[in-house]
Amino acid sequence: MDETKKSAKVLVVMGSDSDLKVTEPASAILDRLGIPYEFRVASAHRTPEMAVALAREAARSGVAVIIAVAGGAAHLAGVMASQTLLPVLGVPVAATPLGGIDAMFATAQMPKGIPVGCMAVGGTANAALLAARIIAINDENVRNRLEQWQKELRQKVRDADVRVQALFNNSAESDPGGAGAD
Ligand code: C2R
User: Fold this and answer.
1) What is the residue range of 145's domain?
2) What is the CB neighbour count within 10 angstroms for residue 136?
3) Residues at CB less than 6 angstroms from ligand 1
4) Which helix (DSSP H) or strand (DSSP E) does residue 80 occupy?
5) Which of 11, 21, 37, 176 lies 20 to 30 Å from 56 when distance is taken between CA atoms?
6) Are 146 and 131 contained in the same domain?
7) From the CA of 65, how far away is ligand 1's center (Å)?
8) For residue 139, what are the β-bridge partners?
9) Angstrom distances, CA of residue 144 to CA of 82, 127, 132
10) pLDDT digit of tens for each residue in the chain (182 aa)?
11) Tell me, what CATH number does 62's domain have?
12) Does 90 lie in the same domain as 104?
């Protein structure tokens, strides 16, 4: 595939700029994977026309996946999903005394017919990675970068295992299978 070919975009919409801190990890991941993205603020409650317009225009402007980040009575992902056939990933935010359970239920419990993928509370990094996996179906460059990312993730766990063993294990030989000590 042509390296210069532009990947499809991810549209990341926050219900409020108070969600920015939770949303930021998505940008690091999308940068790392070379996926263009746009961060916006729009609310299904406070600026419904804007949320609807963003969803309606997304496909035309090269967006492949929408990530909707919202806390409390989180209707943003569902409303955006009602206005487009693009996949919408909703990220609930812990923005109220209910700690994100409210937003998670609102995001997950969509009525039949309008699907939204509900991520973990605050799970913007995984939302970015899942968006990348969707884009990777048709984009070899993104797929290769994801493979590299996954390799590094595995290596980090192996390195951590070696560090922890060196710090705490008092047997002469380490036991890679974890079943030897008695
Ligand atoms: P403020 O801090 O602006 O009061 O917002 C936002 O995502 C934020 O987490 C508090 C919380 O309200 C959320 N919000 C929604 C929607 N619009 C804003 N859940 C919506 O359209 O669903």
Assistant:
1) 140-171
2) 19
3) 15-16, 18-19, 43-46, 70-76, 93, 95
4) helix 76-81
5) 21
6) no
7) 21
8) none
9) 32, 18, 11
10) 444 567 789 999 999 999 999 999 999 999 999 999 999 999 999 999 999 999 999 999 999 999 999 999 999 999 999 999 999 999 999 999 999 999 999 999 999 999 999 999 999 999 999 999 999 999 999 999 999 999 999 999 999 999 999 999 987 665 565 544 44
11) 3.40.50.1970
12) yes
pLDDT at 127: 98
Q: Report CA 85 to chain centroid distance, whole Å.
A: 18
Between the CA of 102 and the centroid of ligand 1 the distance, in Å, is 12
Contact 135, 127 (CB under 8 A): no
Task: State the distance from the centre of ligand 1 to the C-alpha of 70, rounded, in angstroms.
Answer: 5
Q: Whose CA is nearest to atom 21 of ligand 1?
A: 44
Q: Which of 12, 13, 67, 76 to mutate to test the pocket of ligand 1 (most atoms within 8 A of CB)?
A: 76
pLDDT at 5: 62
- C-alpha of residue 19 to centroid of ligand 1, in Å: 8
Token output for 49: 């026309």
